[in-house]
Amino acid sequence: MKKIILLLITVVALASCGNDNKSVDAVIDSGNISDIKAKRTELNQKQRDLKSDLDKLNAYIDSHEKEERPVLITAEIVRDTIFKHYVEVQGNVETDQNIVLNAEYSGILTDIYVKEGQKVIKGQRLAKIDDGGLSSQVAQQEAQMALAKTTFERQERLWDQKIGSEIQYLQAKTNYEAAKNANRQLQSQLSKTVITAPFSGFVDNVISDPGQVVVPGQTPIIRLVNLNNMYVKASIPETYLKNIHDGTQVIVNLASINEEFTGTVKQVGKYINPNNRSFEIKVEIPNKDGLVKPNMIATVKVNDYESQKSITVPENILQENSAGETIAYLYKPINDSIGEAKRIFIETGLSYSNHTEVKSGLKVGDTLIMEGAKTIRDGQRVTIKN
């Protein structure tokens, strides 16, 4: 439309020029090239002047039409809701039943009774170390203990009948006790040559091979893992200490297996780590399918704040003025289709998941401007998208 107006005005101007001076056709018919160029220069200048005037007129019209045309917005009725804030930290999956069984007796590893991946029960034999003749010593000691026991029992019967001396009775008793103690010590040493499962679980790794010389406390034999009692351990900044306790709701996400669990804090640490000013929490997690493994990385969301009847607004509709005040806009209807934007100042609380809690300045039932909130001004005419 603007181009058509410009063209018409230009044509009119050119026509009027022909009336005041020679027409374009007359100049061309004269055949004077200098007059023709001069006429062209004159018309180009008049065209530029007209275009400049048109631009001014269009700019004025556009600015006034923009002020009169209401801005399209979206709005929502304010309602109360449950607002929950979470502290997000990284944690590790752990289990207390994840151990490496080491040799407790020095000797040659003679037998491995299990294989990797095998399920075992508590007390089951897993491996055997050569006892170096210790079993023979145990047998000999048991024979001596049996003799000492028989001697003691006979001497005890005689003593009950007041036969013999007290010293003979006490000596027999002492010999028997010493034999029992010696036998217990040998039996304890002999039991260390057999490695048994301290709990039920799975053989995760057989570390040593038969024929290998093992040393107590230095040679790992088998890794045993139980995946039934898994938990996540995470460190929380000490600033959240007063808001987190046993029973606090927690959401645990395991991205590696695309699983999310909802649980509660089972234990809050009693110690603040001086290196990072944090305390530890434990969260039990289920492991029905056995997919959860020790040392997996977990994202832990701890619910440190909750309000049952709270007003929240999207973060992206809030603005801040030079004084640091938070601003939002309400919709105030003028008629059925047109309204007015009213600026309000609000006090905000915590923010989570792109929503901010409003402490004051907004009430249930207000109509809050959403889309378009950052492009309007106080008192501007607005209309809600159908």
Automatic annotation (TrEMBL):
<feature type="domain" description="CzcB-like alpha-helical hairpin">
    <location>
        <begin position="134"/>
        <end position="191"/>
    </location>
</feature>
<comment type="similarity">
    <text>Belongs to the membrane fusion protein (MFP) (TC 8.A.1) family.</text>
</comment>
<protein>
    <submittedName>
        <fullName>Efflux RND transporter periplasmic adaptor subunit</fullName>
    </submittedName>
</protein>
<feature type="domain" description="CusB-like beta-barrel">
    <location>
        <begin position="232"/>
        <end position="304"/>
    </location>
</feature>
<dbReference type="InterPro" id="IPR006143">
    <property type="entry name" value="RND_pump_MFP"/>
</dbReference>
<dbReference type="InterPro" id="IPR058648">
    <property type="entry name" value="HH_CzcB-like"/>
</dbReference>
<dbReference type="Pfam" id="PF25954">
    <property type="entry name" value="Beta-barrel_RND_2"/>
</dbReference>
<keyword id="KW-0175">Coiled coil</keyword>
<dbReference type="GO" id="GO:1990281">
    <property type="term" value="C:efflux pump complex"/>
</dbReference>
<feature type="coiled-coil region">
    <location>
        <begin position="33"/>
        <end position="67"/>
    </location>
</feature>
<dbReference type="Pfam" id="PF25893">
    <property type="entry name" value="HH_CzcB"/>
</dbReference>
<dbReference type="GO" id="GO:0015562">
    <property type="term" value="F:efflux transmembrane transporter activity"/>
</dbReference>
<dbReference type="InterPro" id="IPR058792">
    <property type="entry name" value="Beta-barrel_RND_2"/>
</dbReference>
